[in-house]
Specification:
The protein is of the alpha+beta class. It has one domain. The chain is built from three helices and seven strands. A five-stranded antiparallel beta sheet has the order 1-2-3-4-5, with helices on both faces. The chain has a two-stranded parallel ribbon with strand order 6-7. About 30% of the residues are buried. The model has no long low-confidence stretch (mean pLDDT about 85).
Length: about 180
């Protein structure tokens, strides 16, 4: 019996110590990770709305909405528009995006906050050549592989799934604006 007790007790002690160390590291890194995320979001909001100097009043999100957050954006005391956070599914997982929508309901800009898409393919959705296509558009946007028309976005070469995911996120943000803000 004691032959079995020694290895089991050693295993329990090792597991408890590892769990305590892991919990300690988690507690230490929690605040810096939150600060990093907030800084990334603030930078993205500034990139979407150049004149933004204040973000306030988080808007209520309807239950079951694909939108995770929505904020009002101000510049010099004037409402510039709204930033809407969505996370549509891409090729390799969720693509966290922020969509800026002006007070008239047109896309002010799009920024990808985080993704796990394939480097050199889906990761190219972050390039200005792709995301700048959304600026000024409203309505139901579609992806095309050919030259884009009015409410079409030309897909990133060899990354149609990622392109469609970003477009779905932008459409989700525009629909949220139409249904919940306007």
């Amino acid at each position: 019996m004691s032959e079995l007790f020694k290895p089991v007790s050693a295993m329990v002690i090792i597991t408890v110590v590892a769990a305590l160390l892991l919990g300690y590291v988690y507690a230490i890194t929690l605040e810096p990770i939150a600060a990093q995320r907030a800084g990334t979001e603030a930078k993205a909001i500034g990139a979407v709305f150049d004149a933004a100097d204040d973000v306030s009043q988080e808007l209520p999100i309807p239950e079951g909405s694909p939108v995770s957050r929505a904020l009002q954006v101000y510049g010099k005391g004037t409402l510039l528009g709204y930033v809407v956070f969505t996370s549509p599914d891409g090729y390799s997982g969720a693509v966290d995006i922020i969509v800026g929508i002006d007070v008239d309901g047109a896309v002010e800009g799009v920024r990808i906050l985080q993704h796990s898409e394939t480097p050199g393919l889906g990761a190219n959705a972050s390039d200005p050549a792709f995301i700048d296509q959304y600026k000024g558009k409203s309505g139901d946007l579609k992806i095309t592989k050919a030259a884009p028309g009015d409410n079409e976005i030309q897909a990133v070469t060899s990354a149609t799934i990622t392109s469609a995911a970003v477009t779905k996120g932008v459409n989700d943000a525009l629909n949220f604006f139409k249904q919940s803000i306007r």
